[in-house]
Amino acid sequence: MNLCASIDGIVNNLSVPFNKVKAKSASYMAADLVSVGDSWLSFAIKKRLIEPIAGAEDLDWFKCLSHKWKSQVYLRRNDAGEIDPRGEIWAAPYRWGTMVRAYKKSKFRKHNLAPIEPELTGRISMVNSPREIIGSVLKYMGASYNSNNIDSQVAGGKIAVQQILALLANQAFGIRDVWAAVGGSSDVLPAVKYMSNVAVVVPKSGASLWADLWVYPCPPFYFDIHFVIPFI
Fold first, then answer.
1. Cα(52)–Cα(76) distance, rounded to whole angstroms?
2. 189 in helix, strand or coil?
3. How far apart, in whole angstroms, are the C-alpha atoms of residue 97 and residue 211?
4. Three-state DSSP class for 80?
5. Which residue of 29, 121, 177, 195 pairs with 23 in a disulfide if CB–CB is 3.0 to 4.6 A?
6. CA 172 to mean position of chain CA atoms
7. 180-184 and 124-125 as β-strands: parallel, antiparallel, unpaired?
8. Could you read off the pLDDT of 112-162 as tens digits, one per residue?
């Protein structure tokens, strides 16, 4: 079992052209299973980096999943990587959660701030994820986190989004004493159990959901028993 720095690093390694790499027993391509984030699943399917899980419907882990997992959310896709209730099963979820905000209770009490406070310039730390940062900007602009056409679905289009992203970048680079941090629930919740001055909230407007999935690499990279999992 090997640990890597990030899930996107696994996808990058799987994306190396077949004819340029000789798979070794300790490589990503020689693994029996690899882990990808749900946002990478469509890409991996379209690029033929992974294969469906044969006979998944008869396995206990699949039978225990809710209907949304089985047909509406992540797992059933067509060959183009699109969600399709009639598609094949491409992944097995092993961890999932939501984005949350952790904040220092003493700082917010002292300055009489609500836990979800928009004006935290230089005091908030964002998770290192383009999807989450752009999603936060879209929500800030009154658009849907799931917008798939910025020019037609967001007021001001790409130019307006880029302006807000630049503003957010200036705030991030100007961070002083962090009062709040945005992160995944699987990372944040275990940590704050031992921090009496830190609390966790989810905005009433909602938060993004994420899942980490086990997938099978395509046959050319299927050799001996070996696992690659992300280091969190």
1. 9
2. helix
3. 7
4. coil
5. 29
6. 20
7. parallel
8. 777 665 566 667 777 777 788 888 888 888 888 888 888 889 888 999 988
